[in-house]
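Meet the record:
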Amino acid sequence: MTEIIKKKGKTVGQIIARPFLWFFTFAIPVFIAACYGGYYEIDDAGGGANQLSATGKVLNALTGVSITQIKVSCVAPGHVDGGDYVDGGDGVIDSTYSLPGDGHFELWYTDDNPCDRLVFEDVDGAENGEYASKTVQFDDTLEETVVELFPLD
């Protein structure tokens, strides 16, 4: 058997290695696609929605110090009836929390689903002090929205 393999110019290692190399050459792209999804190109020129952001800071109205862990929600425009959207949804596009340090927040929305109002809520209770909730009209012409919340005493 060894003489037949040598006559064809192949060694046993080559005969064994070729199927493994073939398998890995074709299997690795399949594993990558399964883990990360298929390749596709994003076409923004086709009139798709632009990804936009609303950024800002949350401050204490009395001291001017930044407040952390305030829930900030970007709410979609719509008809409100008794605090709830008539269509049954809550209208929240995106929500986040103000960050430690400077009270910074960043929310995301699109042209197709614009942000109408920003709702600020203290959801952690007395952990960082209690603050009154506040809703402000969102102005996309501002670089940054600075909101001051009054402490509840």
